[in-house]
């Protein structure tokens, strides 16, 4: 069955000498077993009918074919395999033409490359994005693409995972003809008849072979690409397999190379990276499926106000402007408005400097921007997002103004990263219109948007927030109200585990190295130096009054901040940044502070391996993630995964902390936590949900499906 539960099929219809085979499996004709069988049946039907001289392959709906059916991976394979289908198409004794529109990706493009001729409508987007799922094109793509477009462009297409437009595809030889008629079927049929009229040859892609000079040039290109890829794809498994398979295609017979491609593909299928990357693919799509967003119609969303023109306010304004929404920015005085506008323009000037935007385009965008010092300018907007100073009283004052001037039904959103949104909602006359929209800095770049749902908000306001996220091309995650919502609440806990490791004997440099080795772009102490240690310092001071006196508190960060060493912005933090360089060097004075703090705390330092560091770091993250799900702050474990994949740099090929926990085994994670609890029972309290799942022999993913 297809994703939309209508039976998948390949319909065939004879039009003169052409048998049209229409793949129909909504929404994107992913090549499930029904379509694979239907394709072979269509080829056999064409061969059995003497009146048929050509076969035309087209996709129903909005796409040609979006690729193999990703939902089938990890299950027992059902014949025929996609390579068999492609070989059968290529071997067809009648001319086969593929007419592509919309997306022609992965196995979909491989089907088209196995055809004898290819037409693309101008809206077609072609690609071989398998590496983004931890795979390689496994149905002949690593052999046919180089034969059609040359090794360099083919490898670039496969390693980048990008979608190529129809015009470029024709220019590089992937496509023979561009279609301008009103449908792929009409254009494809006309093209097929034209080919028949011309007596076009069968032109099998596998028969296109390079001369020896071209082959040795290609092998040299591959060697260079291999060296670059080994460096760039840091730890990823499948990119180098792409290159190995392309090389086989140059050095071996087509059939031998095809056999090797299949072996390499199956190695990728078995790799944990495929499991992680495919989990990430589906998590990004499942997070938007929340009850409120499905139960209610979103409110009108045609104009937005932003209160606050600082870095966050400006970033949010850019994000809205980029979604073609007119924005009215409010600040307290003309100078602040000018600063807010300048912060917005700075983003676009940066794009112009990089040649990614024209000044005319910037002018068009800025025409949608207006600034005012009077809240009355917000009287008619559909939604307002405040991004003012993180202080509850300041925010309540803003909301009082919004309550006074905004039209009935306007959605009133706060960008707060930890304040109590229920308290903000309770401070005005319309709590049902109040919601949290927690953007991550830089707001116009980071994809994560935590949609924080207060107790009294109405469902259509939640639906409006999800609709806004879709317009902004963000990944929205529904979060409940608590200190830090999902991401920052969990961050605070595993950051504490890192501080304990540091005081117990691991240096911040060893911890950062272990976290980078795990796949993060940088470790927690590098992050602190980048964001500014003063931010965490302010949070610790804010929490000091309510901190559990029995809880272990590491003071190393305070000692560093007391010296004004806040990180990159002050030239030193945990690291030294000589002459403002961004790559930090270990600081012996920091090590001395750490030694002194260990002595003060009466700790005899011990060494930690990278594995020991990561087991603690991840156990803390996973355990708090389980608490966040158990307490309903996150709807499902996949919401925690999406939060960390899109807001905290978690390595995508590991699928997110909860997916990673499932791959490690929850019993292993729980055993680790129980071991660590012997040292510090207060910090290491196993999450009741984690204990329940282990007792029941279940994993976190079982809760994702339960929704
Ligand atoms: N398999 C199964 N389901 C798929 C799918 C696929 N290939 N592609 C999309 N869907 C579902 C998706 O989960 C969602 O489901 C719905 O379709 C709409 O998708 C052998 C092994 C095509 C650009 O990597 O990039 O071929 O949420 O929300 O934003 O070499 O989907 O409605 O239930 O993303 O318009 C290679 C993956 C596979 C392409 C459309 N192909 N898909 O984006 O809609 S591996 C890919 C996409 C392969 C062979 C190898 C995008 C899209 P639901 P959507 P969209």
UniProtKB/TrEMBL annotation:
<keyword id="KW-0560">Oxidoreductase</keyword>
<dbReference type="InterPro" id="IPR006176">
    <property type="entry name" value="3-OHacyl-CoA_DH_NAD-bd"/>
</dbReference>
<dbReference type="GO" id="GO:0004300">
    <property type="term" value="F:enoyl-CoA hydratase activity"/>
</dbReference>
<dbReference type="GO" id="GO:0070403">
    <property type="term" value="F:NAD+ binding"/>
</dbReference>
<keyword id="KW-0576">Peroxisome</keyword>
<comment type="similarity">
    <text>Belongs to the enoyl-CoA hydratase/isomerase family.</text>
</comment>
<dbReference type="InterPro" id="IPR006108">
    <property type="entry name" value="3HC_DH_C"/>
</dbReference>
<dbReference type="GO" id="GO:0003857">
    <property type="term" value="F:(3S)-3-hydroxyacyl-CoA dehydrogenase (NAD+) activity"/>
</dbReference>
<comment type="pathway">
    <text>Lipid metabolism; fatty acid beta-oxidation.</text>
</comment>
<dbReference type="Pfam" id="PF00378">
    <property type="entry name" value="ECH_1"/>
</dbReference>
<keyword id="KW-0443">Lipid metabolism</keyword>
<dbReference type="InterPro" id="IPR029045">
    <property type="entry name" value="ClpP/crotonase-like_dom_sf"/>
</dbReference>
<dbReference type="InterPro" id="IPR036291">
    <property type="entry name" value="NAD(P)-bd_dom_sf"/>
</dbReference>
<keyword id="KW-0413">Isomerase</keyword>
<keyword id="KW-0520">NAD</keyword>
<feature type="domain" description="3-hydroxyacyl-CoA dehydrogenase C-terminal">
    <location>
        <begin position="614"/>
        <end position="698"/>
    </location>
</feature>
<dbReference type="Pfam" id="PF00725">
    <property type="entry name" value="3HCDH"/>
</dbReference>
<keyword id="KW-0442">Lipid degradation</keyword>
<comment type="similarity">
    <text>In the N-terminal section; belongs to the enoyl-CoA hydratase/isomerase family.</text>
</comment>
<feature type="domain" description="3-hydroxyacyl-CoA dehydrogenase C-terminal">
    <location>
        <begin position="484"/>
        <end position="577"/>
    </location>
</feature>
<keyword id="KW-0456">Lyase</keyword>
<feature type="domain" description="3-hydroxyacyl-CoA dehydrogenase NAD binding">
    <location>
        <begin position="304"/>
        <end position="479"/>
    </location>
</feature>
<dbReference type="InterPro" id="IPR018376">
    <property type="entry name" value="Enoyl-CoA_hyd/isom_CS"/>
</dbReference>
<dbReference type="InterPro" id="IPR008927">
    <property type="entry name" value="6-PGluconate_DH-like_C_sf"/>
</dbReference>
<keyword id="KW-0511">Multifunctional enzyme</keyword>
<protein>
    <submittedName>
        <fullName>3-hydroxyacyl-CoA dehydrogenase</fullName>
    </submittedName>
</protein>
<dbReference type="GO" id="GO:0016853">
    <property type="term" value="F:isomerase activity"/>
</dbReference>
<dbReference type="GO" id="GO:0006635">
    <property type="term" value="P:fatty acid beta-oxidation"/>
</dbReference>
<dbReference type="InterPro" id="IPR001753">
    <property type="entry name" value="Enoyl-CoA_hydra/iso"/>
</dbReference>
<dbReference type="Pfam" id="PF02737">
    <property type="entry name" value="3HCDH_N"/>
</dbReference>
<keyword id="KW-0276">Fatty acid metabolism</keyword>
